[in-house]
Amino acid sequence: MKFIPDALQGPSITGYGPGWVEVNGEKYHSSIIVSSQGVIQPWSCLRFEDLGEPHFEELATFASELVLFGSGANIRFPHPQWLRPLYSRRIGLETMDTQAACRTYNFLSGEGRKVVAALII
Predict the structure, then answer these.
(1) Which domains are seen in the chain, by residue range?
(2) Which PANTHER family does the record match to this protein (predicted)?
(3) Fewer C-beta neighbours within 10 Å, C or N terminus of the chain?
(4) Separation between Cα atoms, residue 95 and residue 121, nearest integer Å
């Protein structure tokens, strides 16, 4: 699916499909972090099975109010203990499949929210 977002201040997710996500017109085939504050970087969590607290510690370093966790093709929830780094910094977390996280990221970023999308592809 391709779509054109409203005017965003940070990076925008311009498309997605099985095994890829497109940010600002560039396709990514492995897990990434996208921040409305301008960050686009690889995420060391390549599969849901590799997920652990250090991955959420990394996400807690961003100046965000909310993390959108895209868990892959299906919605899968992280262990609650892994979320401590986020909650201790008063950062919210929403878990959804990666495609839903892409759509939600663009919507919230377009509203000027400080949001991070952590996407398992």
Answers:
(1) 13-119 (3.40.1230.10)
(2) NADH DEHYDROGENASE [UBIQUINONE] 1 ALPHA SUBCOMPLEX ASSEMBLY FACTOR 3, NUCLEAR PROTEIN E3-3
(3) N
(4) 14
108: left (phi over 0), alpha (psi -120 to 50) or beta: alpha
The set of residues, in sequence order, having a beta carbon less than 8 Å from that of 84 and lying 6+ positions away, is 53, 56
Tell me: the pLDDT tens digits for 23-41? Answer: 999 999 999 999 999 999 9
Task: Report yes or no: 65 and 114 within 8 Å, Cβ to Cβ.
Answer: yes
User: pTM for the whole thing?
Assistant: 0.91
Residue 112: what residue type?
G
Per the DSSP assignment, residues forming a β-bridge with 67 are 93, 116
Residue 82 identity (one-letter amino acid): W
Tens of pLDDT along 6-27? 555 789 999 999 999 999 999 9
The whole-angstrom separation of Cα 36 and Cα 24 is 12
108: tokens are 């919230």
Alpha helices of 53-92 — where are they, by DSSP H?
A: 53-60, 84-87
